[in-house]
Specification:
The complex is a heterodimer of chains A (114) and B (118). Helices cover 0% and strands 49% of the residues of chain A. Chain A contains no helices and eleven strands. In chain A, the strands form two sheets. In chain A, strands 2, 4, 5, 6, 9, 10 and 11 form a seven-stranded mixed β-sheet that branches. Chain A has a four-stranded antiparallel β-sheet with strand order 1-3-8-7, with no helix packed on it. In chain A, strand 4 and strand 5 form a beta hairpin. Chain B is an all-beta fold. In chain B, strands 2, 5, 6, 10, 11 and 12 form a six-stranded mixed β-sheet that branches. Chain B has a four-stranded antiparallel β-sheet with strand order 3-9-8-7, with no helix packed on it. A two-stranded antiparallel sheet of chain B has the order 1-4. The termini of chain B are far apart. Classes of the chains: A mainly beta (114), B mainly beta (118). Chains A and B meet through strand 5 of A and strand 5, strand 6, strand 10 and strand 11 of B.
Chain lengths: 114, 118
């Protein structure tokens, strides 16, 4: 297992377009988390899954954002009608549910909305 | 809601010297976990060290150690014998287990940018 993979690494899109990011967690991890990190800030929690169930969503996750984890494996994060304020690094992480040793993070997807 | 505060936006240390990064947090919980993560430029975030709140002994990992003061809600990171490869953003993070006893989301501070110089 090569860790948490995120695709694409970089995405430039025009305002108003839809974008979708993918995260492949460590295979034996049943928890998957999405965070957003803007320049000079710490990561902010967006949502997380346990297997295929989405257990919590942050207020940061507006109606334009949707996340799925259809078979409890990979996850997608879609942003509809992108705005310039959506420009950020989107981080994915995974863990086991009883693992308190910290998450394994992916390298992130950097979104630039122009 | 829990909050994590890192009051040092940037710090600089010479190679081989020791540096301490500060972190304070606010919670009414008694059982929780604290973490320090390192994020090198354009690279992924990796765990440096963690502390369990119910353990009084401060965690250590090679050159990295913490000073955990539960009553003061303080969790500082000491890096000894600093190396150029320690140059990175360092984030303090807090986790409160769910009522089910399982892991939960992390709440991060705003980070401290550490520059190690020759």
């Amino acid at each position: 297992d090569t860790g948490v993979s995120q695709d694409p690494r970089h995405k430039i899109t025009k305002r108003g377009q839809n974008v979708t990011f993918r995260c492949d967690p460590i295979s034996e991890h049943n928890r998957l988390y999405w965070y957003r990190q803007t320049l000079g800030q710490g990561p902010e929690f967006l949502t997380y899954f346990q297997n295929e169930a989405q257990l919590e969503k942050s207020r940061l996750l507006s109606d334009r954002f949707s996340a799925e984890r259809p078979k409890g494996s990979f996850s997608t994060l879609e942003i509809q009608r992108t705005e310039q304020g959506d420009s950020a690094m989107y981080l994915c992480a995974s863990s086991s549910i009883y693992d308190f040793s910290g998450y394994t993070f992916g390298s992130g997807t950097r979104l630039t909305v122009v | 809601a829990q909050t994590v505060t890192q009051s040092q936006p940037e710090m600089s240390v010479q190679e081989a010297e020791t540096v301490t990064l500060s972190c304070t947090y606010d919670t009414s919980e008694s059982n929780y976990y604290l973490f320090w993560y390192k994020q090198p430029p354009s690279r992924q975030m990796i765990l440096v060290i963690r502390q369990e709140a119910y353990k009084q002994q401060n965690a250590t990992e090679n050159r990295f150690s913490v000073n955990f003061q539960k009553a003061a809600k303080s969790f500082s990171l000491k890096i000894s014998d600093s190396q150029l490869g320690d140059t990175a953003m360092y984030f303090c993070a807090f986790m409160k287990p769910l009522n089910t006893g399982t892991a939960s989301k992390l709440t991060f501070g705003t980070g401290t940018r550490l520059q190690v110089t020759l």
